[in-house]
């Protein structure tokens, strides 16, 4: 594949918050290309700039220097986002939360119901369809968030510390669901994490330190992040 096939390309992309002496550089000149089918873990301690980099990839933030282009994506609907924080709408049940992106896109109700049912089944949450977010656990809520991404059928899935608030076993199930969704849809998957065990589940790993995306994997650096969560 060539650069023309890339979903997202960061070229010397930097992100700075604020101005003058109080300015904070969250990302220093990152170079990164995400290709179709990629499975990438961006590893680093809290505050290393992982989330800021993910926001640049998603278009939630614009680079203060350098560029971020998305040659392989038609628009925001091609990007599915999974965050560490709770993202379900409290007033909607699990099925309605999963259906939300489809409803906003104007999908026919019958098609939406089938898609939602299939998505919840794939992540092992079919029995939760009529429950409210307050009636399910944090791990279940994350699996529902993954199902919502699946229903959207994106070309790129960006997951920001999706297991960060979960115990090891629950986090493993959420990661299983993310990988299953990426395999099912053929989407590229980028996961930020401070957990070496999570990073080890993805074939390509990049370390982030002090806002700098290192050129290649360094297993010692990845191991060091275990003490920096």
Secondary-structure blueprint of this entry?
Layout (H helix, E strand, L loop, with lengths): L7 E10 L6 E11 L4 E5 L6 H9 L6 E5 L9 E4 L11 H11 L4 H14 L15 H15 L3 E5 L7 H18 L2 E6 L2 H4 L4 E6 L2 E2 L5 H6 L5
Parallel strand pairs: 3-7, 3-8, 5-6, 6-7
Antiparallel strand pairs: 1-2, 1-4, 8-9
Helix pairs in contact: 2-3, 2-4, 3-4, 4-5
Protein name: ATP-binding cassette domain-containing protein
Keywords: ATP-binding, Nucleotide-binding
InterPro entries: AAA+_ATPase, ABC_transporter-like_ATP-bd, ABC_transporter-like_CS, ABC_transpr_LolD-like, P-loop_NTPase
Question: Summed up, what is this model?
Answer:
GO terms for molecular function: ATP binding; ATP hydrolysis activity; transmembrane transporter activity. The chain has 229 residues and is an alpha/beta fold.
Provide the descriptors you would attach to this structure in a database record.
229 residues, alpha/beta, Rossmann fold
**What is the CA-based Rg, rounded?**
18 Å
CATH first level: Alpha Beta
Strand content: 15-25%
Helix/strand order, N-terminal first = EEEHEEHHHEHEHEEH
Major pleated sheet: 6 strands, mixed
Number of strands: 9
Question: Considering the protein shown, what is the CATH homologous superfamily?
Answer: P-loop containing nucleotide triphosphate hydrolases
What is the CATH T-level topology? Rossmann fold
Structural class: alpha/beta
- CATH structural architecture: 3-Layer(aba) Sandwich
> What is the rounded distance between the termini?
36 Å
- Output mean pLDDT: 91
Number of domains: 1
Can you list the strand order of the major beta sheet? 5-6-7-3-8-9
Which regions have little confidence, pLDDT < 50, spanning 5+ residues? none
Pfam family, one: ABC_tran
Protein name: ATP-binding cassette domain-containing protein
Keywords: ATP-binding, Nucleotide-binding
GO molecular function: ATP binding; ATP hydrolysis activity; transmembrane transporter activity
């Amino acid at each position: 594949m060539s650069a023309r096939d890339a979903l997202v390309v960061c070229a010397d992309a930097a992100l700075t918050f604020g101005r003058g002496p109080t300015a904070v550089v969250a990302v220093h000149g990152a170079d990164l290309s995400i290709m179709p089918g990629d499975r990438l873990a961006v590893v680093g301690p809290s505050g290393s700039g992982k989330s800021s980099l993910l926001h640049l990839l998603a278009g939630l933030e614009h680079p203060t220097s350098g560029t971020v282009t998305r040659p392989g994506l038609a628009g925001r609907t091609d990007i599915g986002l999974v965050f560490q924080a709770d993202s379900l709408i409290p007033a909607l049940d699990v099925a309605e939360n999963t259906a939300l992106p489809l409803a906003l896109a104007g999908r026919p109700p019958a098609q939406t119901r089938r898609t939602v049912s299939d998505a919840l089944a794939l992540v092992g949450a079919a029995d939760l369809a009529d429950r409210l977010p307050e009636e399910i656990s944090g791990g279940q809520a994350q699996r529902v968030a993954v199902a919502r991404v699946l229903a959207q059928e994106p070309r790129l899935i960006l997951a920001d510390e999706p297991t960060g608030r979960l115990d090891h076993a629950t986090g493993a199930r959420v990661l299983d669901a993310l990988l299953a969704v990426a395999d099912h849809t053929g989407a590229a998957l980028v996961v930020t994490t401070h957990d070496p065990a999570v990073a080890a589940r993805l074939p390509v790993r990049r370390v982030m330190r002090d806002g700098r995306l290192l050129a290649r994997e360094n297993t010692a650096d990845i191991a060091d992040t275990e003490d920096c969560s």
